[in-house]
């Protein structure tokens, strides 16, 4: 039983990122769609790793990155995600706990290894992800700590979780508990291919159980099978009380009923690696939102955090985001 | 049996670096000497990890970094070092092989885990290392592949190896084989505390078995128990045919008999993390030396590689060093 209140609980696939620089020819040779996230099996993971160059390992996972961002802003963050009791699992757990994220999901004692994502970063800073889910498949409803969900202002879940039935059940259970406790629920659509896989299900889920949707332009267009961004924004405004639509360097649009709040992207001198941009945007927005800030300020905090994370390799902030927000006059 | 000739074989402790940014207060609180390398046991490793912030994992190890540098220059590199058959060992092995380093030392099947070094980087870019040697203690003379040593122009060993008796024996055996095959031997003194631990032994070793010594200013002064750099240079000139003495931002002095070649440091805009500076200096020097370049050019290549590695986090080059050398008119 948690006696502590949390601002944001995130639930997602607990993944160690294995980041390598590659050229565009490598991406073509491996028949990958640049910018996408691909689920791979163990055999493909081994094959891909064998042809990749040297890499850097750093904790990642979409919702994990968001929790790290919230903590860096000084928010009270919790995380549910499954690693195995192995070296990468120990690293993942350390990296969460050491930044003050409440993370107590029991580690899997057997079964597949801690998940890893081979993240191929091309010279343009774009990333192509190849994820072996490993131990993530063991996240189940048993890992949904009811007391934590009930004690959290916003429970945020990554769409990627929907790819495995047990994790999907955990996702739905967490949403149910949050709603029953009068708390807010949130989802990120994660990836346009992910939207393709779950479109109908997500229409129902969003209408019935979600308070805040995060999506980028291609994801929201895919959700409503349209090429028209404004049309997609209009559609989501009918299905969900609040939607935050990010448009890369074009900034973002916050949609609340008929209201549209348009906030430009925070300038970035050099884009090193876009991994985590959406995750960190969500962290800034949710930190602001759970601290009663107006939508424009929430979005500006999101833009700032996204700008910080794409300016370096790796999907976790390298500086204290609260200090950065203060230095930029945003808090 | 190797039918291939190598330019440089390096032998050292195979270590995964666990790099975290800390402030100076953390270094004091943990009673560490900034800039030093400390050997720690498993209990201390756990205790230190528990209080450290989030980290990035990247393959390291002094001699391993040097082999990576030689390969990046386009040299033919081989490496002997011991990891365990675990996740970090697989990462280490991948990172060496993927850059073309010949690395076939059998992995330990039991015993302690793959070594890791907790590298604490302070805001000034200085690093303080805390190394748990783990599986490295299992490197023995059985791992010295005679055919590889015999086929290598320069066998280079890190002084750190001397801290464990079995590895020290492997070190001496490799030197013996190299000399018997008419090849060159080289050592880096690694760390001034390491010199303290082995001073008398190393005086004998260098005089009897070493052709090229690498040392920084504090190491060479410690070796000869003097505060006088020129005196230390004079002393090493009598004990060893060739010595390469690095002096951080003051550049380096190459000592060959009465000859002194003084080469300035390559300019660096911002020092992010000095880890690997000496290792990469050695890689550039040895690449040049095994390709028949004059001493001044060898030292300039070393300075260039050192400058590249300290401009970012992590002790392995992030760009192709051969290309960088060409861009700088050094090759």
Structure at a glance:
In chain A, 40% of the residues lie in helices and 21% in strands. Chain A is of the alpha/beta class.
Oligomer: homodimer
Task: Give me the number of helical elements of chain A.
Answer: 12
Give the overall pLDDT of chain A as a whole number.
97
Q: What is the strand tally of chain A?
A: 13
Physical arrangement of strands within the biggest beta sheet of chain A: 5-1-8-9-10-11-12-13
Cα(first) to Cα(last) distance of chain A is 33 Å
Largest sheet of chain A: 8 strands, mixed
| Contiguous runs where pLDDT drops below 50 for at least 5 residues of chain A | none
Helix content of chain A: 25-40%
Please describe what this structure looks like:
Two copies of one chain form a homodimer. By secondary structure, chain A is α/β, with parallel strands linked by helices. Chain A has one domain: Ribokinase (UDP-N-acetylmuramoyl-L-alanine:D-glutamate ligase). Chain A is 40% helix and 21% strand. Chain A contains twelve helices and 13 strands. Chain A has helices spanning 24-29, 42-51, 62-72, 87-97, 146-150, 165-180, 192-209, 217-223, 229-239, 277-290, 295-310, 321-327, and strands spanning 6-11, 15-21, 37-39, 56-59, 77-80, 115-121, 127-132, 152-158, 184-188, 212-216, 242-246, 252-256, 259-263. Chain A has an eight-stranded mixed beta sheet with strand order 5-1-8-9-10-11-12-13, with helices on both faces. Chain A has a five-stranded mixed beta sheet with strand order 3-7-6-2-4. In chain A, helix 10 (277-290) runs antiparallel to helix 11. Chain A binds chain B through residues 18, 21, 49-50, 52-59, 68, 86-88, 91, 94-95, 98-99, 113-114, 314, 316, 318, and chain B through 18, 21, 49-50, 52-59, 68, 86-88, 91, 94-95, 98-99, 113-114, 314, 316, 318.
